[in-house]
Design goal:
This protein is mainly beta. Helix content is about 15%, strand content about 35%. It has one domain (about 1-85). It has a three-stranded antiparallel β-sheet with strand order 1-4-5. Mean pLDDT is about 75; it is low at about 1-10.
Length: about 100
């Protein structure tokens, strides 16, 4: 099953956060390794620390039962390493 959710496009990287209301309170985020809706804020902060001029293109959202996949592409200028796994890696921003 496919649908389009009101995710960010290019109207600011944060986009329409009302989509968070669709997630279960005990949502597990595999990027941050955290459970709960505050994981959206953690990932957003890390993205802000890593990429400037961020743009998001939402392609599709798919679900099967209680499993959901959001397919999107993010682009931006690499300015830092806000994600712990990238700590210490130099940014190689192209101007």
């Amino acid at each position: 099953m496919l649908t389009r959710l009101p995710m960010a496009t290019n109207a600011g990287a944060r986009g329409d956060m009302s989509v968070v209301a669709l997630f279960a309170p005990d949502f597990f985020d595999h990027v941050s390794g955290r459970r709960g809706l505050e994981s959206f804020d953690v990932v957003e902060r890390r993205l802000d620390q890593s990429l400037a001029d961020r743009r998001i293109e939402h392609h599709a959202t798919m679900w099967d039962g209680d499993r959901v996949l959001v397919w999107h592409t993010q682009q931006g200028r690499h300015i830092g390493n806000g994600f712990p796994r990238l700590s210490g890696c130099p940014s190689r921003a192209v101007t």
